[in-house]
Specification:
This protein has three helices and no strands. The protein is an all-alpha fold.
Length: 65
């Protein structure tokens, strides 16, 4: 998902995506601790995507005040 795609989604959709991404990220970290991932850079990419979504949600929250 790119920044433009994040901005186009509704707030409710972003919250759903965020919950799913955080769940997937936690599972990926657990799997990585048990046996190394083929691509450990995916952890970094997922964490940054979660941060992008959280940033957009916070920005919308501040604009609505």
């Amino acid at each position: 998902m790119k920044k433009d795609e994040i901005k186009e989604l509704s707030t409710a959709d972003l919250r759903e995506h965020l919950a799913q991404m955080e769940k997937d990220y936690r599972q990926l970290k657990i799997n990585h601790s048990i046996s190394p991932l083929d691509n450990p850079a995916k952890l970094t990419a997922d964490r940054r995507m979660i941060a992008r979504v959280k940033t957009e949600l916070r920005k919308r929250e501040l604009n609505n005040q």
